Amino acid sequence: EEPVLLAELKPGRPQRYDWKSSCETWSVAFSPDGAWFAWSQGHCVVKLIPWPLGEAELCKTSERKSRAGKAETWSRGAAKEKTLECGQIVWGLAFSAWPAAEDGDTDPACAVGLPCLVLATGLNDGQIKVWEVQTGHLLFSLLGHQDVVRDLSFAPNGSPILVSASRDKTLRVWDLSRDGRQVQVLSGHVQWVYCCSISPDCSMLCSAAGEKSALLWSMRSYTLIRRLEGHQSSVVSCDFSPDSALLVTASYDACVIMWDPYTGEQLRTLRHVPLHSTLDSSSEIHTSSLRSVCFSPEGLYLATVADDRLLRIWALEFRSPVAFAPMTNGLCCMYFPHGGFIATGTRDGHVQFWTAPRVLSSLKHLCRKALRTFLTTYQVLALPIPRKLKEFLTYRTF
Fold first, then answer.
1. Which of 2, 168, 227, 321 has a CB 3.0–4.6 Å from the CB of 312, allowing a cystine?
2. Where does the SOCS box domain lie (predicted)?
3. What are phi and psi of 111, to 5 degrees?
4. What is the helix (H) or strand (E) element at residue 344, kind and residue range?
5. Under 8 Å CB-to-CB from 87, ≥6 apart: which residues?
6. pLDDT tens per residue, range 37-72
């Protein structure tokens, strides 16, 4: 089933062209519970939108939404959409929900007894501003980077550890529970760092820069584990599977490589070949340089956005896309945390929402996912079980 465009949001301000990136959506993000959506509009603004609960409501909202692209109809109940004035062009976005504090020792910025949902924004001048979502208040301004903060990633376990990736060729680790103190600087890249991703088990960090290799770091010791070498051009995006057993990297060489992060082995290469039938015969030929890759929440699909103006959806067991849709100059993509649709950001500052395959995971996959959440590849290989079962559990077969 091909992706269907459900809705499209457009900036509410006139375009500014003093910076090339000022009218481009380089980052979109859903909160971990799916209740909020953040959108880097350009113009130094981030829009925070309370999210509909289900696809049915999204479709209804899409029907009600005016062609002018106003987003007011996306509000729900008492929660109101907010505009965060960041003062600089926004490149990276990341949500995190802090656990509720015990014994009444609650962060003053959060409602008593409730988790604190925060949004980190990476800015053009190297600052990182962290906002409390419910109130829209600024909590921290983190200083240290010397150039654009291109991407941000929170530790998925709810801890207030934030990793930032910058054009100053470094990654930095921040602890928001210690007033945003910088706890580590990771150096090793020789080009701009485009992307960073923390594994769901919080043991590893992958970073992608304008280099042919991606770097894998330990989140425990903040040391380099290995270089992942295999691409023929700059690696620009990376993402871990929900069980941390797989890592995917996307490159300007028009390929996605699927890795075993524990061994460094290349498991599969997905090549973005031109799909001429999807393009108007009179249009120019577009390259397939990749911009973004992300895993689906259940871990059975990938979504990619490339410069050939196509959104592709891949199933892990196949080497060709199972669905694709023509889109407008895509720059980033992200799955809704509960599945069912994908958000993409575009060069003209818009956000588009697409249907995605809904799948009922097999019992085999659910068991594999549960085991791989706490077993490394080496631990699986050491189990006294048949070889074919080991191959399945390590994603050598599907």
1. 321
2. 362-398
3. -65, 145
4. strand 341-346
5. 44, 123
6. 998 876 788 999 998 744 444 544 444 443 334 433
**Maximum separation of any 2 CA atoms in the chain, in Å:** 67
Place 207 in a pLDDT band, splitting at 50, 70 and 90. very high
User: Among candidates 81, 28, 74, 32, which has minimal Cα distance to 52?
Assistant: 74
Q: What's the whole-number average pLDDT of the chain?
A: 85
Partners of 50 in beta bridges: 36
What is the separation, in whole angstroms, between the first and last Cα of the chain? 21
Range in 72-81, 104-113, 177-186, 389-398 with the lowest mean pLDDT: 104-113
Which token pair is 59?
């479709």
Domain 5-10+20-54+79-102+112-275+285-362 fold = Methylamine Dehydrogenase; Chain H (2.130.10)
DSSP 250: E
d(CA 258, CA 384): 26
Centroid of chain to Cα 291: 12
Question: Read out DSSP for 63-127?
Answer: HHS-TT---GGG-BTTB--EEEE-SS-EEEEEEEEEPPPSTT---TTS-TTS-EEEEEEEETTS-
**Interacting residues of 313 by C-beta distance below 8 A, sequence separation 6+:** 3, 301, 302, 303, 321, 322, 323, 324, 342, 356, 357
Query: Would the CA dihedral through 241, 207, 307, 257 be positive or negative?
Result: negative
Nearest Cα to 272, choosing from 240, 303, 300, 294? 303
User: Which pLDDT does position 44 carry in this prediction?
Assistant: 85
| Order of strands across the sheet that contains 204-209 | 193-198, 204-209, 213-218, 224-229
DSSP result, 276-322 = GGGS-TTSPPPP--EEEEEE-TTSSEEEEEETTTEEEEEETT-SS-S
* Higher per-residue pLDDT: 322 or 111: 322
The number of CA neighbours under 13 Å toward the Cβ of 102 is 0
| H or E, element range at 392 | helix 387-393
Backbone conformation region of residue 308, classed left if phi is above 0, alpha if psi is from -120 to 50, else beta:
alpha
